[in-house]
Amino acid sequence: MIGKTIDELQIGESAEFSKTIAESDVYLYAGITGDFNPAHINEEYAKKTFFETRIAHGMLPAGFISAILGTRLPGPGTIYLKQDLKFLAPVRIGDTITARVEVTEVNRDKKKVRLRTTCTNQDGTLVLDGEAVVSPPRPPKK
Fold this sequence. Notes:
Blueprint: E1 14-20, H1 23-33, H2 38-41, H3 43-47, H4 59-71, E2 79-87, E3 96-107, E4 112-120, E5 126-135
Antiparallel strand pairs: 1-3, 2-5, 3-4, 4-5
């Protein structure tokens, strides 16, 4: 099974993925990446910060974008080439984050697709904004 090829993609096409951030997600992400910043894992420390509580790692919701690209749009076989991100608001434990990708450019000559990438929380606050460039899957050789 492969995702959509360059010839199947259209400007404006989009896909989404939503997940509620659990405490275990933050601890697992810290363990996998080695990022044990106390702003993420130590509530007593985090209470004294600007955010007044622990926040999720910024790259955790950014990973939801990768999930969409690799499983939904364009889908399996997609190769991630570039990602620009702006972190606009904190993501807290218990927030429900909706990641969204939207095709903004299809370059058939270079076989590359540009997509707007965003994450919003349950209140509609944009927490992450960016742009990705991917190489969509190629049709199987016959």
